[in-house]
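Section 3.1 - Work completed
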Amino acid sequence: MAVLDQTESPKFHQVRSIFGHGKDRQDAIKRYEFIPTGGMNEVIKQWQDKQPNRELVAASPSQITRCPRSIWLELHGVAPLQETTWALKQRLLLGRLFENQFAEELESAGMLLKHWKDDPNEPDQKFHYGAPDDPAHFEGTPDYLIALEYMGSVVTAISDAKTSRSDAFGYVPIEDFEIWTDGGWFKNRMQLVGYYILAHSNPKWFEERKLPLPDVNHLFTYALDDGVVRREVIWKPTQADIDLFLKYARRFNAAMNATECPDCTCGESLNGFEIKFCKYGVKEEGKKICESCCDDSLIPVKEG
């Protein structure tokens, strides 16, 4: 039987001490923030560093609410102030792995009609809206097409899976009509509206595969650390939804084609959501989200 070394008593037993105000608080913070170097972290970093970055080539549902200035800056080679680190890439990878797991579970329940896999080795499955020169052109790939019960009937839905931490839901409303006042959830709503538009703009693809076009959208968010779905919403996109999405698409394409740097619109987003997570945002020391973004000083100066 193993015997613990009792020569030095620990100062505390739980990292949760970080939330207290005792004499060991700073030591608790150090332990909470400590990340070992080398070892498995180096293995993960090296693997992620070899993975190709996705290039910005067209407007897409997942980025449709993005600020025109940040789009322009990226396309003109301005390095982002907030890099996508190997650790964040690893977390995003978990979302893709869980997406495949949800597909297996939906199939087991007899609900899955189609899963568009978001894997690097999968062939390009993008749907397109409009020709490349259309001011509202965009392209993208949904997660799932499923059958589910909604308002007493079995309907077909474009479904999308999101992942998050359970503590983040303390800031997210519960009721359907309130949840869209959250900046992140509004962005998700627009993303699914885009997939709905893409499906209905490509009816032949569905017809050839004997698949029905979607009646509604279905969005759910899974808490990675406690293993349950924390929010789930079903709704039928309105004409206002569709008009707003296409307005965003036209704004996106205008930014991609602009010769002069557009104005920043991050501050117009719900709850300042686009500021908080802007690639060209500035974080104050100790903060996890940006408090300002897209500064004029980032705009390249023309020579001559």
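Second construct:
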Amino acid sequence: MDPADPVVAKVADVSIFASDVRAQAAKTGASSRDALEDLIAVELLATAARDRDRSRAIDLEMYNTWKSALVERFLERELETRLSPQHVPDSYLRPFYDRAIDGFVHPRLVEIGVLSVYTGERMKPEARARRTQTARALAAFVAAAPPGTVSDFEAIAADPRWRDQKVVFTRTWQSGDRPFPEAVGRRAIALRKPGETTAQVEDESGFHIARYAAERPPKNVPFSEARAEILAEVYQRWKADEFLRLGHELSTRHKIKVFPERLVAETPPRR
């Protein structure tokens, strides 16, 4: 082994030299370790393509010349032909539907702006009394000068007079019991038009005043109808997952040795 150009990795019977890594790093702007990983991936693909063509005995110089073409052809033949949208299985898409089910199946939703003063079960009596006093004062303030819009509602929470007393603003789509509990949701769902505001509601979490912003009608979109929308969102992610899976399969099929310490050794010390 040439000390000036050590072997830093071996993929099957192909050696990757430090000079190869330097050239790849200079070409891509990647770190030495990332450049090495790129070269290993290319060699794995080229080896797989070579094996698939049953042309194991290829002149090394010719192999280096044709390596890019081998990789490109292997990707086109082995990946692109089975990575089109119609190949994405329902078993991959269905979990995305299940996690986003509230966006596909829901009752009537009301978008509300909420001014809250939180207490909570574990709050000490003295602190709870202060928060309760703030909540009462907030309710009187809103009743005396009703905000014109939800943005005006938000501005109240941003005002230092109320912000410093822990008044919090939230804007959300509310059903009868989510995300705010039923005590708030029941009154929020009763709102029908801009400007309508609930009275202050007390529940186990604290005190809340909700104001109508907009609404969505009930929705019931089954997976079969939502599939195309989900596919459009996750298709590129699925392709990347499949490519990584192929890389893992190839890495277990072909022997790989990596000597990262030789990359460190080749880096000249800073002065």
